[in-house]
């Protein structure tokens, strides 16, 4: 039987892994709403502005999906 003798990682603070702009946007409104609004705005914007808005929506969705996947294994004392 394996007994984990390490101290738990939870020290009561939030990890400081996200930039301040993401924290501000998360506070203002949830990120799925931002993705939807960027997609809607891309339909109404003309030319390269619409392309930039939809690319921003896709990039934000991909980034948030990758942040949700566990990639560190057992470093947080859980499986």
Tell me what you see in this structure.
With 79 residues, this protein is mainly alpha-helical. The protein has a domain at 29-68. The protein has helices at residues 20-28, 31-44, 48-68. The longest helix is centred in the C-terminal third of the chain and has 21 residues, at 48-68. It is elongated. The mean pLDDT is 78.
Topology, element by element:
Layout: H1 20-28, H2 31-44, H3 48-68
Helix pairs in contact: 2-3
What Rg, in angstroms, do the CA atoms define?
Answer: 18 Å
Assign a percent range to the helix content: 55-70%
Distance between the termini: 16 Å
Largest sheet: none
Number of helices: 3
* Unreliable spans: none
How much of the sequence lies in strands comes to: under 5%
Gross geometry: elongated
| N-to-C SSE string, H for helix and E for strand | HHH
Structure class? mainly alpha
DSSP E strands, number: 0
Q: What's the rounded overall pLDDT mean?
A: 78
């Amino acid at each position: 039987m394996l007994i984990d003798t390490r101290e738990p990682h939870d020290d009561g603070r939030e990890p400081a892994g996200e930039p301040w702009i993401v924290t501000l946007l998360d506070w203002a409104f949830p990120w799925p709403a931002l993705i939807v609004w960027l997609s809607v705005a891309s339909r109404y914007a003309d030319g390269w502005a619409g392309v930039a808005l939809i690319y921003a929506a896709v990039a934000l969705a991909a980034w948030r999906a990758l942040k949700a996947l566990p990639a560190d294994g057992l470093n947080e004392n859980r499986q």
